[in-house]
Amino acid sequence: MSRNGDAAGGDGDSAPDNGAPKDSTPADTAGWPVELRGVTESVVATLGPNDLWNFAALGLHAPDEDQDDGVVTATTWGNTRTRRNFHRQEGGVVQFVSDPRDFVDAAMTIWEGETPVLDSADAWAEVEVEMVDSGDDGGTHWETWELRPTEAAVEATRPFTINRAFGAVVDATVAASRLDVPAFDTDELLSRLAYFEETVEACGGQAEREAFERIDEHTGWRELAAERRNESF
């Protein structure tokens, strides 16, 4: 996912400064608590000027395998709360959530809370960030950041499972977030959303189906699709 949203939330008994439950398992403080490969989807919490944590979806780009000292990077698109809070605080808390509903809310809404770690986070890492590149693409300003963990923990471990519906929900947030971006074709995006909807209905459980419903609640893409179909007749 290339564009990060602005959303926040989460509560729970917290460790000093990071909001992790007291019984969390410490991870290597010099590294990440999970394996990163390609682009790994995460939710990042950044502290705003109102002293509330803002949560947003953020794609983590792992370094190439031949880069022994490579650093994980992420790109912010537009003048989002994440971008502004990165500049203001030079850090945040990256977490890896297991609930697709939390991912949708982070990607599609403005969601703020008093603590930085969601109940659905299986692992988290407090990171320092540094902007290393910037530019413009299709009229949107982007900035690339290097992320370095300073503290991390694993909250829950479970067998690895694959569910196509969870992946479809993630991809759907990308398509939905681009509906109002002139550089992207609206009809193509709506076609993708319809396909992802079929995948969620066929393969998803209650959490995935509720998450997909929230995408429509936040964007109204189904109504837009119906309007464009009527216009074509």
From TrEMBL:
Pfam families: DUF447_C, DUF447_N. Residues 40-155, 163-216 form the DUF447 domain. InterPro entries: DUF447_C (IPR049288), DUF447_N (IPR007386), Split_barrel_FMN-bd (IPR012349). Residues 1-31 are annotated as: Disordered. It comes from the Archaea. This is DUF447 family protein. The lineage of its organism: Archaea, Methanobacteriati, Methanobacteriota, Stenosarchaea group, Halobacteria.
